[in-house]
Structure formats: C-alpha cells, structure tokens
Design brief:
single chain; about 425 residues; alpha+beta; Cytochrome p450; five-stranded mixed sheet; three-stranded antiparallel sheet; about 15% strand
Length: about 425
C-alpha cells in the first residue's frame, strides 16, 4: 500500500471495502482510516459471502482490543486471512492462546529473546547484514524488497538451527502464509496457498524436531530451547513445539523485510531525512522507531469479542470478529503529531507495530536490533540511494509491504 497518503478526500463509509486487495496493492487506505478514526471508530462490514467483522482504527481502541484477553480472545484466530474459520491450533499455537497458558509458554520461550539475551548475537548479525548489503555497492540496480525477504532467514536461520540450504524454501512458504493472494506467492486459490504453506512449514519444524531427538546433542539453537521448554509444570508437546517453531519462523519473516523496504523508500523520497541520519548516526534508533510506525508492516490483527462489548458509540456483539488496524493506530493524530510526516527526529517509541499487550511480538527485541544494525551499516556504506525503478506493493490486506523496490546506491566516500 502507499505509505505516503494522497490528499484527503470524501469517503462514503457505507461503501468502504477493507477487504479490497486493490486498496493495498495500488490504492491508498490511509485517507479512509483518517475518516474512520474521525467519524466511525467502530466500523462494521459484511462481505459478499456473509462473513462480517468490526474494525477499530483509533490508537486507544486498538490497544484495548489487543491488550485485554478477557474482552477479546485470540483463541479463534488472529489474522484476517482466517476470518470465518476458527483456528484449529487454538490453545496450542502461542499466538492463538490466551493467558494463563499463553503467559506460561511465552515466559519460557521469551527468556531466550529478551534484549539482554539477544545482545550477544549482535556481531554475528552485523557480519550477516554487511554481506547482505555488499551486492548493492557496485552501483547497479539492486532490488532491495526482493532481497530483503531473505534477510530474516540470514539473521535468524543460524539462531534457529536452520541450515542455509533451507532458507529460500522457508522464505517462500512464510510469504505464502502472509500474502496468499499475491501472484508472486499464490499457488492456486488463496485457501489452497494457505493450506499448502501451513502444512509444509509445520511439517518442516516437526521433521527437524524428530531428527534432533534421534541424533541427540544440542547446538544452542532456539529450536533446541523449544524442545526443552516446560510450561505449567510439563514439557511442550511435539505439536506445540512444531506450531511455536512455525510461529517464530513466520514472525521473523513478517516485520523486518517490509520495515526495511518501506523505511528506505521513505528516505529516498525525503533525501533531507537521509542526510540528517547520515550526518548524525545517533538518530538511527529514532529512525528505526519511526520506520516501524510509518510502515506498520503487520497492518492489522484480529480478535473475537468474548461478550457484547461497547466501543465508541457502537457495540461489538459476543463472538464478533474484531480487526484492530495497526496501520491506522500508528497514524492517529491524537498520539502522533502530524502523523503523515516521516520524521527521523520524532520520538515514535509508542508505536504499536509489534502489537500491544500479552501478544506483543516475542521477537521484538531481535527485530529492533536487526533493524538498528541494518541502518547503521547502510549509512556507514551508502552516500546516497535513488530509485532504480517502480516499487511494487504486496497484494495483501494483512501485510503492508513491497515485492519490488529497485534501488541504485552510491558508496559513501566521506567519513
């Protein structure tokens, strides 16, 4: 989707279709969200096939929906691509499990993913990022978005204990899960794409676990850690290990590549912002937070109302699917001054690109460190970046990203 919105326009909220894939591929949802926040903070839509959902677009309402499992449960599904079909992994897959079980499992897994725990990985990640950026330094056109899809595998593959020979396959499969309607990743229908990718990813992790058990020994990877986790006084089942390994793979491949591409595009379109960071590298952490806010790569998350719940001037009925629009919350003018301006000096630490509440992204500290290192290395090497072709946006109403971003980078020649 366009991250820099066009001019404000009249919007007929009765005709808004938030499931229109063209709105995200070639359109501009931000003016629609602006109007929704102002006039319809709780918006109801019925799809042609009878499925229905309620949308919240204000920052505070998004945090409420994502933050209180007693009002909004995760145990029927959390992504809009599954709207209308209850999640068969509820209560087993971490992202589709409510507290207290969620808290028990998350605490055990998350111990290996805190900011302190991931700090020792910094040098390894920096070396990987430096190798990743090297091809762009020859001055030829280089497709950042296409290459960035592989970046999380380069970073997290060794940490998960996944061999390099499998990275490309896993990148493709996770993209199929998050963008099953995009022609780059679609195999047959959207439903078929989701079924194939889910099955292949879970099977992959299951097979890795079986091989680890049969060979014995440990390599210190996150997969080994999952196999040793105990929650509620008992070890995780093999099914839980497989599903949570799948979830970690998926999460790693969602936010980082699209935040990278969207932030670089914002800098290309605003060379004065690029120059500010180049002149003052201490702005990189600010750039990362502003990039997360600006791109909001995980555009939304879904919950189901536990009971009739009033929000704003409306009511979500018990069992109603509720979509919390992250991309709108991060442009809420009551929380972010001049929200449609990309500003590397802004303190955007309150952005909710990683979600909010119990399900706040478990890999957030690792993603933040990876993004910081990426931009530190980019500004260390690049003196300027220009577009080398037309960006192409991902065809997805769940992930705000790009499939192509051709760039031409010039080496930095001054300290």
């Amino acid at each position: 989707m366009r991250l820099t919105p066009g001019a404000a326009r009249d919007v007929d909220l009765d005709r808004v279709d938030l499931f229109d894939l063209d709105l995200y591929t070639s359109g501009d949802p931000h003016p629609i969200w602006d109007v929704m926040r102002a006039k319809a903070p709780l918006h109801h839509q019925v799809l042609p096939d009878g499925r229905e959902f309620w949308s919240v677009t204000r920052y505070d309402d998004v945090c409420r929906v994502l933050g209180d499992h007693r009002e909004f449960t995760s145990e029927r599904g959390t992504v809009v691509t599954h709207l209308g079909v209850d999640d068969v992994a509820a209560g087993k897959l971490l992202t589709s499990t409510d507290p207290p079980r969620h808290t028990q499992v998350r605490r055990a897994i998350g111990a290996k993913l805190t900011a302190r725990a991931v700090a020792p990985w910094e040098d390894r990640i920096r070396q990987s990022v430096a190798r990743f950026l090297e091809p762009a330094l020859d001055g030829d056109t280089w497709d950042l978005a296409e290459q960035a899809l592989r970046l999380p595998a380069i970073v997290t593959g060794p940490l998960l204990g996944i061999p390099e020979r499998d990275w490309d396959e896993l990148v493709q499969l996770t993209a199929m899960v998050t963008a099953p309607s995009d022609p780059h990743f679609k195999h047959g229908s959207e439903a078929a794409t989701l079924a194939i990718s889910h099955h292949e990813l879970v099977t992959y992790v299951t097979d890795r676990v079986k091989r680890r058990r049969s060979t014995g020994g440990e390599d210190g990877s996150l997969l080994d850690h999952l196999m040793s986790v105990r929650a509620g006084g008992a070890p995780l089942t093999d099914e839980e290990i497989a599903l949570d390994g799948y979830s970690i793979l998926l999460g790693a491949n969602v936010t980082t590549p699209h935040t990278v591409s969207g932030t670089v595009l914002a800098l290309i379109e605003r060379p004065e912002q690029f120059d500010k960071v180049r002149a003052d590298p201490s702005l990189v952490p600010n750039l990362v937070e502003e990039g997360l806010r600006w791109t909001s790569a995980a555009c939304n998350f879904m919950r189901y109302a536990v009971r009739d719940t009033r929000i704003g001037e409306g009511t979500i009925p018990a069992g109603g699917a509720t979509v919390a629009w992250i991309g709108s919350a991060n442009r809420d003018e009551t929380r972010f001054t001049d929200p449609h301006t990309f500003d590397v000096t802004r303190n955007a630490s309150r952005q909710v690109a990683f979600g909010f509440g119990p399900h706040y992204c478990i890999g957030g500290p690792l993603a933040r460190m990876t993004l910081r290192i990426f931009f530190e290395e980019l500004f260390r090497r690049f003196g300027s970046i220009e577009l080398g072709g037309e960006p192409q946006h991902l065809r997805s109403y769940f992930i705000a990203g790009m499939t192509h971003l051709p760039i031409v980078a010039q080496k930095r020649t001054t300290p």
